[in-house]
Fold:
Amino acid sequence: MNSDLILVIVVATALAFDFTNGFHDTANVVATSISTGAARPQVAIGMASLLNFVGAFISISVAATVANDVVDAAVITPTVVFAGLIGAIAWNLITWSFGLPSSSSHALIGGVVGSAVAAAGFDAVIGEGLVGKVLIPAVIAPILALTVAAVAIGLVYRIVGRQRPGMVTRGFRYGQLVSGGMLALAHGTNDAQKTMGVITLALIANGSLGPSADPPLWVIVSSAAAIALGTYSGGWRIIRTTGTRIIKMDAAQGFSAQGAGAAVILASTHFGFPLSTTHVINGGVMGAGAGKRVSAVRWGVAGNIVTAWLLTLPAAAAIGALAYGATAIFGSGALGPVLVSLASLSLIVVVFARRSRRGAPVPAA
Amino acid sequence: MTAVVVETKELAQTIVASVVAGVGITVVFSIAIWGVARFADFSRADRPLAAGAAAALVGLALAATLGAVVFGVVVMTRK
Structure:
């Protein structure tokens, strides 16, 4: 009975994380399209939401369970996963409240690392996995996307620079509908799997599924629905940062940023070197600005974003560890997760209600 | 040490493919837009041959763009 209740809580928390993932990462997909006027905000978000839903069905590779390479599998219990998810959700909401785009995958990894350390000590962390799968890709992703977008926008201006601006802008706006769609599909494919993986692992740990079972249909559908619903809810604060505060973007820059972002994400997917969507698209936006003129990028805003990226792992880990500690106070039963869930939910409702009143749609350029 | 921790072959492939695909798709689509603009100019100037060549270039560039999109979807499904 206790283990079933913990399982239900883990599943609900995983879906809540999936929602915040979609909500938080909406900006990755739609910010450039909205800020260049390629699509109206509600249309862009509706399309991104639909494509995130579809993307979640394209691949169900449970190997995408991100924490596997970073934390010793033997210490992962439903309670560790639960506390890790709390850490990830909390960090997603904190960065959202400051309008800072940060990686939901890194927040999840950080949360699970923190709760695993709280449960079993630092030996639970696989150092090589953390460096090779998380830290080095985190450095490479934005630099690679920045370079690709900067080179691309330089060539674009050479090719279309002497043509009539109205026609060029219209053309790139149409192009952005496609490149934005590709980003949304890739995001749904990559990110909904994390939740599917977490829920499937919890079901396996509980004995509800066999050791090598695929995710059941209800897990796939609920994960797809949660990320799509989160995307549809739209994190306006981060959309404003990515779309208008890093650079003032024209349609060619928007297309270059999205094209570079989609190419980097798909290439990394194809060759098995996964990179964060958030790091890639924000690096692409910076590159599209710097390729035109280095001073076109508001480096102060870019610095704040990079600071959030640097803080994501340790901050989510600290919250995950605290959540595990608070849960463990009440023993190994369901009481701890129930109380921590209720406390977290109350905090989230308060923060959401206070902050969301101040978020407003971004005007088109 | 770094080579052990990082999958260097996958990293190198990712970097090369990202640069080629990211720059390539942007340039190809820009050529399509350039072609549309030139097609309009040539049509107004009553130069049908040049306009036809521009239209053919637009067709090729858009086909290449569409091919890249289809390839991207295939990459996602084969993950």
